Amino acid sequence: MTKKAKKTKNTKKYSEDFNDTNKCYYFDDTEKSTLKKMGIDENNRHQFFLKDLKQMLFCEQKAKSIAGITDKIIYAIKKIIFFTPNFNDNKPDASNYSCALLTDINNDSWAIFYRPSYVKGINDDLIVKKFPKYGEKNKIKKLETKIQSENPIFAVMSDSEISLKDIVNFSVLDNELPSDAFNNPDQYLLPLDIVSRPIFNTRVRHYAVYLGKKEVVHITGVAGEGTKCETWDKFCKSTSSSAGSSYFSFFSIFTSNSPNSSILGGTGNLTRHHPVIPFKKQEAIIEDISKAVTINYGKGEYKLIDNNCEHLVNMCVLGINRSGQVDGNSRKPFFWLYKELKSEADEFNSPNSSYKSYKSHIEKCIRRAEESRNYTRTKYEIERERFDERIELQPNPPCKIQ
Q: Are 207 and 313 in contact, with CB atoms under 8 Å apart?
């Protein structure tokens, strides 16, 4: 292709005429007015992809309809940055993340992360975080760098010591699933979500990572077993008669008359634990799970206090070697998130392990789950709802979300 032909092809992607109703994209008067308030008019519209302009309008309408945004961001906006973050790549769902960094007239900055869900049983993802005086201190670029890093969670978490409870309350969505989730988990869970269920009739829960297409990865503590892949049915309804490790005999005092009952026994309501913003990128999570299964991580080393099933899933998905069920009773529940993620980065490494087969299996589970999921819109429409370019705007005052 010649340079001249290539240029002609590219210019067709940009907005050349807002009024041509025969074009694929058409902006009515209300949309033009909204774009003008955000700083886009006939003088600069040629700089933007048409699809990005539509995505900006979509984000603006969503922001105005969500009380969690309109109740917090009440002052006029003087700067806006739109983009689709790097962690959106290779996501386990058709829908996309959009990010907006706003700075208001008081020089307070806001980060908004939003991912719409077009699956009836799965919630939208939303995080709104305020950064006081970031505009005055010119820290927006640093914030954006953290969002685009290997650990996006650093962008919204405190730089000081913090507890697992505080992290989970802000950035992990916990919701109890309906009984239909036992039969149709892909309509309620995304691959690489953490899922838990009660152990017998106690308040203790058993945790696993959902892979998709009715498969999980977990550690049971049963003698001779480490981290392994398991079917969804066995995770939900296990009635294993295996005696398990000595740690399980403690629970048998409260849970069963049989000395051979496994801690996996029992059923109950499932709970989804979904990180709204990734702690680690998807490829890193898949790699860590694959390594853990390959090396049979935790075999013979299961301990309720410092190496249980929740420790495993939190290390794989969140990069945190902590258990909320244990930390709640700990005298030292606070830690540095950065140090925790850094120290756990090589937890599953083994010089002699070959994990590619498990990695391929997990990726296959993710693909099959996506293929079987029922959306309320076509996947083609959903997958187009993203920014192709990073957009930085100086709005025309007064520009408010309300």
A: yes
